Amino acid sequence: MYKKLKLTRRSVVSAAVVAILAAQMGTLSSAYAQSTQPKLAQPDISLSASHDPWGPLKHVHAGVLDVAYAEMGPANGPVVILLHGWPYDIHSYQDVAPALAAKGYRVLVPYARGYGETRFLSNSTMRNAEPAALAVDAIDFMDALHIKRAVFGGFDWGARSADIVAALWPERVKALVSVSGYLIGSQESGRTPLPPKAEYQWWYQYYFATQRGYIGYEKNHHDFAKLIWQLASPKWNFDDTIYERSARALDNPDHVAITIHNYRWRLGLVNGEAKYDKLEQRLAQAPKISVPTITLEGDANGAPHPQPEAYAKQFIGKYQFRLITGGIGHNLPEEAPQAFTQAVIDADNL
User: Fold this and answer.
1) What residues contact residue 328 under an 8 Å CB cut-off, 6+ apart?
2) Cβ contacts of residue 235 below 8 Å, gap of 6+?
3) Is residue 64 pLDDT above 60, yes or no?
4) Taking a C-beta distance cutoff of 8 angstroms, is the pair 160, 131 a contact?
5) Between 20 and 30 A from 15 (CA), which of 63, 74, 84, 119?
6) pLDDT in tens, 303-328
7) What is the Cα–Cα distance from 315 to 319, expressed in whole angstroms?
8) What is the DSSP letter of 177?
9) Would you kindly state where each structural domain of the chain is located, as residue ranges?
10) What pLDDT, on the 0 to 100 scale, is given for residue 190?
């Protein structure tokens, strides 16, 4: 069940809260603004063996990555791209993807950099995880597959990437479904102290800021990620089979470096790449999102997240907010797949 709200500008509090409560992200290079036109060459796609319910994963060279991704649905159907978060993987959409495919959508679910079978094409590429880089990965993925426009859905890191693409390249996004709403931020906002209870929720970010945290996550990432799952979704009684299915994706050789860099970047402790600097300035201004959007929140989300009233003014097109009830936590697509699937379909028809 979900509760459906339409928020007007008179019903929201200052959007300035967004910059503090929303997670921070980086920027995209202005060079990419000219590189998002679909290429004429045929995509270089390969298959990898898999015993997973998704079937064989596909691979495509996109930007700096060899992206591993799952695909379901008719090849000529309207495209939906689903982006996962940390520390999760594509299995968050295991029930959503076939449901959308059954409705005629071509569903693409890529592994982010540092997850699953996705690999960097060069050993010399910086293991950069500023959110800008992750968003550019999504654009590169679309370009590599000659996709002009898609419906985007995401949660956690994936929602942030989807938000950025929708804000900076609205012509590439037909509609958006974002768990926890507007997650675009900046390093500057990351330097702003939060109230004590809010700071407490970000304990792992401060742990990762230390060398002890780097070594600890490198040594214990399997159990660490499981703890995050439990804290972020306190009422979700997932079993070991469900967890282990996703935890394998965290064995990617770049996963630890990607995770640590992302959270250190948010606090301004490390730099990203200069090619993103110009668009970082734009993103730091909290650009509005104009594409049709449905934002979702679980009623038992234990992870840090902004309140819907704080970010509603950031969505200036057709917009709905839905509270998903029944003890739903942070991994909303896996915990409430029917609600997420319906939101994608409804957003596409707003």
Assistant:
1) 233, 235, 236, 298, 299, 300, 301, 335, 336, 339
2) 300, 327, 328, 329
3) yes
4) yes
5) 84
6) 999 999 999 999 999 999 999 999 99
7) 7
8) E
9) 2-348
10) 87
Burial of 104 (0-12, 13-18, 19+ CB in 10 A): exposed
pLDDT at 228: 98
DSSP 51-92: -STT-SEEEEEETTEEEEEEEES-TTSPEEEEE--TT--GGG
Computed on alpha carbons and rounded to an integer, the radius of gyration of the chain in Å comes to 18
Q: Contact, 89 vs 115, CB < 8 A? A: yes
CA distances from 54 to 66, 69, 217 (A): 18, 10, 28
Query: Which CATH number among 3.30.1330.60, 3.30.40.10, 3.40.50.1970, 3.40.50.1820 corresponds to the domain 2-348?
Result: 3.40.50.1820
Q: Which residue has the higher pLDDT, 265 or 52?
A: 265
Contact 139, 69 (CB under 8 A): no
pTM of the model: 0.87
- Please calculate the CA angle 70-76-81 and round it to the nearest 5 degrees: 40
Q: How far apart are CA 161 and CA 68, in angstroms?
A: 17
